Model the fold of this input.
Amino acid sequence: MNENVTPEGAVGATADDSEPELDLSQAAAIMREARERALRELRARYPVVFVTWGLLLMIGYGAMWLSVLGQHPYTGPAPWSLVVLTLLLAAGAVTTVIIVGRPLTGIGGTPAAQRRVHYLALAAGLVGVFALEGALAHAGASNSLLGVYGATAPMLMSGVVYAASPAVWQDWSTRLLGGWLVVVAASSAYAGPVGVWGIAGLLAGLGFLAVAVVRRRRDRA
Amino acid sequence: MSDEELDPVIHAPARLRIVVTLSTLAPDEDLAFTRLQDLIGLTPGNLITHLRKLEEAGYVATVRSGRGVTARTGVSLTPSGRIALERYSSALRQLLDGAAGPPGG
Done:
């Protein structure tokens, strides 16, 4: 046995190479079935992930916007809306892990390493963004400033990661989404602590949905 | 090899499944042996046998990494393997077209 092919746990290998004769139509059918199965099981369904995040952002940010709508003076989002947003973001993270993680299990190489770095950068960036928000509150930042920061900083950071990550370098639509998130975060901040939640949530959510459509069409092509 | 000869290394059900499955990965990706085994549905021993033939032909490469519980064997299609699969597909199409006969004949 070739020593290069000695996977972990494979002992007592048999040398059963007595395969049945293969006619032409069978060969064509095997090729088709093997390709379809591999594409079905080894490809992450990114359009589903983008639709999920698009809807979660619109609902979560929408809940925050409703909770601050009409506040005079501005006091900040209601606790119930923070709970809704947190639960939705957690649901999005779990959905992403399931939809992206399962099909890509066992796939190695440079792209896989880049994907790991991409998600680690996102996670580290979000931790940093929320830690900074805590520091701003501790330093006496106003509710208005914290509101604008809370709505836009995570989006700005995620956008930068998506726009610059080598993991999505080959995919122009995802890079474009990253750029779109940066633009939405930076510009919606001018709407103030109330409007920012509605505008940022709506525009970012639509961006995710648009990329989902683009990727769905490309996957089908 | 002429255009209409099927590569005997690839022209076997299990090996055909292996190379087609690996061809769906990006050129710089590989697939863990255990995941490939799940997809192809072979015993470890049979999969090793077929991978050995493909490796001897230069069509697949295997790389071991880690130790103990982190041990992993990655299997990938080499550039030669991709070319061989393209030639095989082309030859198969020609043979199938020939077997169908000329239209109206």
Q: What stands out?
A: The mean pLDDT of chain B is 89. The CA atoms of residues 48 and 64 of chain B lie 14 Å apart. The longest strand of chain B covers residues 60-65. Chain B is about 50% helix and 15% strand.
